[in-house]
Each structure stands twice: as structure tokens, then as C-alpha cells.
Amino acid sequence: MPTTTLTLPTKKKSEISEYDFNESTKEVIGGIHIIKAIKELVTESEDDSCMTCVQKIDVDVFINLTNEEAVEIGAIHNSRQKQKKLNFQDKVTMCRKVHNENSEDWKKKAVCLLKCVSYEKATPQSCCTVLSVAGYSEAEYEATQALFRHFDDEGGNSRSFPQNLFRELQGVENKIKYLRQAYGTNGLKEARRCRTEKVGQLYKNFFCTAVQEDSWELAQKEYPEGCKQVERIAESENGKIRKYIPTELIELAEKCNNFESIEDCVQINIVIEKNGKKFENSKIKEIISKYQKKILKEIQETKDHENEQ
Fold first, then answer.
1. What is the DSSP letter of 214?
2. In whole angstroms, what is the distance from residue 82 CA to residue 160 CA?
3. SS3 assignment, position 211
4. Burial category of 152 from C-beta neighbours within 10 Å (exposed 0-12, middle 13-18, buried 19 and up)
5. Which end of the chain has fewer beta carbons closer than 10 Å to its terminal beta carbon, N or C?
6. Span between the terminal Cα atoms of the chain, in Å
């Protein structure tokens, strides 16, 4: 079987000790698919004498490589072979190995590697989804690999796993629940669910801010019907993320937080003494009455101006 000689520095055979070769950990970094195919062929035809010709192959051996060097050598080897184009899973796996080197500029190195292998227009922006997955925590990456393995086993490893789910998971704290739920699928359903929940959380945060509540739980206690309507509005969006908050949601927040509700639920008892004189609630109410109409008028004029625009 022909081999590809890589023009990279390596030790001469005389410089490799018997211990280095026999006891050290060995890993295939180029020609992985060929090795896998040979193993399957030999296993299926154990009694076929013709199979002996493929059980021994010539290889190039590299000693004491870092993960980054191993990835680069494997990439150079693959780029010289007539083989399938790298899919999404391949790119993630390659960048993960660079990430594991714990280099501060690992993303820059990973993009350069993708660019020289098979993705000529690779930039940090165009590779942001690949890089985000490559930078997952150990638990998140393990769940991702489980997704990839099942996907490859079901349909062959030539297809790319859809990136939709991983795009939606960028910025999401609890990625694990979506990754585990997506196992055995192509992730599209979980991507839609994630997007819908992100929209719902956005609307909940807006409503809490508008009604001046510190949490959604407190808002539900104070405005139970209003919160139900917020959830209904979010569901009706079907995961569509708007540039602006829907008018229906703004009007709902205003209705729950109008002047009448504040006046009904808040009482202020103030007594001010100055130069022997007392100013109590009755005087304060006069001040409120004097300026309330003016304030409401200015608010209405502002709203009318915004509607005209």
C-alpha cells in the first residue's frame, strides 16, 4: 500500500529507542479512515489468505508531538489525499485538539489550520460555530461527541451534522439539557425549542423590568394574568427574534404598571417640619394634584410624537 511522505522533521530510526516505540502511546493522525476500513475488511474475512497483504503497511512515525503538531501533520496528510471534504464534525474535532493545548490564542491557530487544510476562506467570524463547540466544557463536549457518533453511525460519516442547534446554543448557559435531548436526532427540533425559549426569556426579562420586579417568580405573584399573556405572546412568535419588542407586549406592560395601579397599592405617609410648621399628607396631595395633569399631558404628547414617527 503506498504511503505519503511528509516533509516534516522527525527522528531517524537509529535515534528511536526500543522503549520509545514499543511502550509509548501510539495514535493514528493521518489515514484514519483507511485504517478503519482495513480493520473491518480483515475482521469480515479472517479466513481469507488474500487479506494478509493489507495487514502490514508502511507508516511514518513521529515522536513526542504536541497535540497542535499532531493535528497539523494529520491535516497536511489529509490535504494530499483524494478524500471527502471535511464535515462539521471533523472541523470541530480538529479545533478541539488545538483548544486542548491550552494556548491563549488557540482560536487564531485553529482558524489558520482550517484555512490551510480545506477551508480557504476561513475567518473567526465564518468559523464561530465550530470554535464555540470546540471550546465547550468537558461534559458539553462529551454530549456533543455522542450526538456526532450516533449521527455518523446512522447515515455515514460523510454528512455534516446540521449546525442549527449549536448556533442557537451560543450564549446559553445550560447547553447540556438541549444536547442530551437531541441525542438520536439531527438537532433541528431542539434548535427550534432553544430559540423559542430564548425569545420567551427575552420577553420575561422585559416585562419584569417594566413592572419593576426583580424576578419572574415575583412578577407571577403580582401580575399572574399579565405573565400568562407574556407567555402566550412569546409562544405566538414561534421562535422569531425581532429587532424590537412587540407593541402588544409594551401595551401589556403599560397596562399592568399604570398610574391607577400604583395609586391603589401604594400609600405614603410623610410629615415635614420646617420653621415650626408641619406639612402632612393633605399638603402633599395638593402638590400631586397640581402637577399630575401636567405630567400625564406630557407623557401623552410624547407617545403621540412616537406614533407619528
1. S
2. 18
3. coil
4. middle
5. C
6. 74
